[in-house]
Amino acid sequence: MIINDETARFIRQHRSDDVRTLALRGCKDEAVDMPFALDQIQGWQTARRKLPTWAAAEGIIYPPHLNMEQCSSEETARYKHECIARFCEPDKATLIDLTGGFGADFSLMSRGFHHAVYVERNASLVEVAQHNFEVLGLHNVEVVNGDGVAYLHQLTAKMKSGETVATHGKTVIYLDPARRDSHGKKVFRLADCTPDVLGIRDELLLCADVIMIKLSPMLDWHEAVKQLTAQLPSVIKGVQCEVHVVSVKNECKELLIVLQPLSSTDVGGIKIVCVNDRQRFETEIAKNARQVPLLLDQAPADGTEQYLFVPNASVMKTGLFAPLSHAFNLRMLDRDTHYYIGEEDIETFPGRRFRITAVSGMNKKELSKKLAGITQANIATRNFPLSAVALRKRLKLRDGGNKYLFGTTLLGDHVVIICDSVSLSR
């Protein structure tokens, strides 16, 4: 791509400036492509936060602001690479991204692969991506301007004719289906995404040794797994499935489903991995398994050393409350209260941990006694008739401080649990 010197100079001089102010001020030099320059300045500012490797490279071309905000972060892209590397030796494998986009995921996932193929039907995106790959020094990359599904059909034809899809070990196929319809409205069902993964599933299983599909965190992963593993083609005897729920700073970002076609019908359970920054919890669940969480049989008494455990966003998304309870031998406060209590602190718990100092019912006199001396607190509610805002107003407490209050249901009664934080790690 060719950028004139005046525009490039303007971008360098102003890339730390406020974009809105620059847009209002404009530029007297008519040689400066102002709309393009503003996109690049805003793109670089976003990349410093989301894609530091890109921000550190001189000459990267950034897409419009919306695309930058919607793209994967470097942290989640690296996680995908690490996840895929468990199934193959990247330096002896081929990665094929059928939904390349502007290449943020691909540029980080492809590193270390012997060969990597980027497929994208939008010619302008292909031009930008190819330029950026060169800037980033990616020499193992093949860029294809074409439709991902059509490219998959070509791979299928090769397989059926006896040819191998790739000449470099295992083949990994990655897809990030578009989750908006023709009117720009968000969609979540697999069948509504583009491409329709269910429609091409059999070809994916035929052509790839490993398939990774990035889906909306809003999607029901149970239903997605059921659809992706049902009625397999006769040449595929079984499919090993993993579900990865990836959160950053306790905000659920991505749902990844990894499929591995097998030549045997001996398929185990579904592996579920919950990731939130440095926290990780994984378990395997048998199909149609039903497990009941451990439930508290009596309320914690004042003065006893007990801890409250609050699951992180990834665990909450999976709904694996019973496996979590059994894995850490923790009791849940009530059947629909997804808080846990234990007698010892557990540093490896996937969430936040608090030391309980008191438990109060909702009686005004009892609350006043238990909250004596507390003028501010961090308040949260779950399975409770009041919102956190309403409870704060009722207790007349300011926000913040080092006390933590949880309005919840304990053994059928509404209570406020008063705590000190053990760990604020996310």
Give the distance, in angstroms, between the N- and C-terminal Cα atoms. 41 Å
- Beta strands, count: 16
Tell me the strand percentage band: 25-35%
Total count of helical runs of at least 4 residues = 15
What is the structural class?
Answer: alpha/beta
How helical, in percent, are the residues? Answer: 25-40%
User: Which value, in Å, is the CA radius of gyration?
Assistant: 26 Å
Low-confidence stretches: none
- Approximate shape: flat
- Please list the strands of the largest sheet in the order they lie side by side: 3-2-1-4-5-7-6-8-9
Report the sheet with the most strands, covering strand number, pairing sense and barrel closure: 9 strands, mixed
How much is the average pLDDT?
A: 91
List the helices and strands and how they pair.
Blueprint: H1 5-14, H2 19-25, H3 34-50, H4 52-55, H5 65-70, H6 74-85, E1 94-97, H7 104-109, E2 115-120, H8 123-135, E3 141-145, H9 148-160, E4 171-175, H10 197-207, E5 210-215, H11 221-229, E6 238-248, E7 251-262, E8 270-276, E9 279-285, E10 307-311, H12 313-318, H13 321-328, E11 331-334, E12 337-342, E13 351-361, H14 364-370, E14 376-381, H15 388-395, E15 398-410, E16 413-423
Parallel strand pairs: 1-2, 1-4, 2-3, 4-5, 6-8, 14-15
Antiparallel strand pairs: 5-7, 6-7, 8-9, 10-12, 10-13, 11-12, 13-16, 15-16
Helix pairs in contact: 1-3, 9-10
